[in-house]
Amino acid sequence: MNANAFDRYLERASAVHRLDPRVKVIVTLAFIVAVALLPDGTWAAYGAAALLIAATTAAARLSPGLVLRRSLLGLPFLLAAVTVLFTVPGRALWEGPWGLVVTDGGLVRFSSITLRSLLSLGAAVLLTATTRFPDVLHALRHLRVPAVLVAIIAFMYRYLFVLVDEAQRLLRARAARSARLPDARGGGSLAWRAAVVGHMAGQLFVRSLDRSERVYHAMQARGYRGELLTLAPHVMRRRDWLALMIGGMAIATVTLVGRIA
Amino acid sequence: MPVVHAPATVPSAPPTAPHATVVIDVADLTYTYPGGQPALRGVSLRIMEGEKVALVGPNGAGKSTLMLHLNGILGGPASPVHICGRPLSRDNLPLIRGLVGLVFQNPDDQLFSPTVLEDVAFGPLHQGLPEAEVRQRAARALEQVGMAGFEGRLSHQLSLGQKKRVAIATVLSMAPALLVLDEPTAGLDPRGRRQLIGLLRDLPVTMLVSTHDMWLVDELFPRMVIMDEGRVVADGPTPELLAQPSLLEAHGLESLALPHH
């Protein structure tokens, strides 16, 4: 049993993969902030940012389709932005039911939000596809993100797999006993089924609680005294500094294009 | 290191060797879980350096509870446990946790770090060793358990047998005076079990191993301690105890099918 569903890392022999994870984390965060701050309707800047994503995708030897597909996963969240179509004042383009009117200003803002989200997601997808998750954690740790926060993310990452395995086992046990007699409507009432699912969730919670106790014992047994220590496996080399510089300049260019346009 | 045994008596008389160091000395240990359920009712046990001792008994006999006492996870400063002559006082605790390599039954509890290397490095890092030494020790420990080359792997990608061996490496890296293993062969397939037995045989460390696997006991452990209902009910040379089917049966243990002694 394994749950590789959360593994977003794709092994490739590329310069991007070999970069120091700290560089990748910094550049990705800077890119996301810069893109989020771009004004509405600065299409040229969006284009430049997209070019940057495309170039990095090519350098990382990833397929553009894959990066796009993973970026699209965030689209449902754009539902929250749909209202701007109708609320931004401007020339009416289309009159919908219930007196809702789509304006040109609204359309520009909605398209801008959509593109900026896609670009940010694209950057995050690139980071997770080219950097092993433990390396991202190290980068965060060595970039002085509070140790407790990093430890929580690390444990979550480690035990997500275990938890999903456990949930799958519970589901399988239920499926194996979900029998039905011929000519009978099986499955029980909706309330009963809901209760079963509720108990399963409770089971999962109790098991996790027990496990946390055992994990804590295992940590104590190896000398844990309240402070998590980690190895420092990464060293900045020349090409890492170079990549950091190029990334910074590229992001500055995108911002500049956004201001001029 | 010669292993010297006292003649088997029931109940026990701990073996004594005048020149060997006492690694574990437990004198009349009692423990009741916070729920009020008594787990240990006067356990005395003495293990000398270089001994490999099997700890057997039915589930709920107190084996795991005893093991948790051996490096101070249970039991306070007044605990009647001495490790290498040291009491489990607050000041001694960090030292003793390095001396007693405690390996839990479920490797998913033992392996809590994202990667194999980080887990094996956890103990020595918390002992305060310099990073170069930590890396060296981690490499040697993984080598000892036959898992060299798995440093960068994620724990959830390993098979159960591999996880168990890495779990042992996580304490070997602390250079313990004593290995305490809780049911190391439970759940392993025959090949994984053989590999683990080979590993335990070759490790030149004092060992206390709890198990239900009587074949393993017969094969690896010259001395055997039987626990039941929170007490040590027998302690002596394995062949002598295994030759008493009535004793084994009385404490819920299997006799070996082929009495080849």
Folded structure, characterized:
The complex is a heterodimer of chains A (261) and B (261). Chain A has 10 helices and 2 strands, in the order αααααββααααα. The model of chain A has no long low-confidence stretch (mean pLDDT 83). Chain A is flat and about 65 Å long. Chain A has a domain at 4-131 and 235-260. In chain A, helix 3 (43-59) runs antiparallel to helix 10 and helix 4 packs across helix 6. By secondary structure, chain A is mainly α. The longest helix of chain A is centred in the last third of the chain and has 32 residues, at 190-221. Chain A has a two-stranded antiparallel sheet with strand order 1-2. Chain B is α/β, with parallel strands linked by helices and 261 residues long. Chain B has a domain at 22-110 and 176-250: P-loop containing nucleotide triphosphate hydrolases (Rossmann fold), CATH 3.40.50.300. Chain B is built from 10 helices and 10 strands. Chain B has a 6-stranded mixed β-sheet with strand order 6-7-8-3-9-10, with helices on both faces. Chain B has a 4-stranded antiparallel β-sheet with strand order 2-1-4-5, with helices on one face. In chain B, strand 9 (223-228) and strand 10 (231-237) form a beta hairpin. In chain B, helix 4 runs parallel beside helix 6 and helix 6 (160-172) packs parallel to helix 7 (190-202). Chain B is globular and about 50 Å long. Chains A and B meet through helix 7, helix 8 and helix 9 of A and helix 2, helix 3, helix 4 and helix 5 of B.
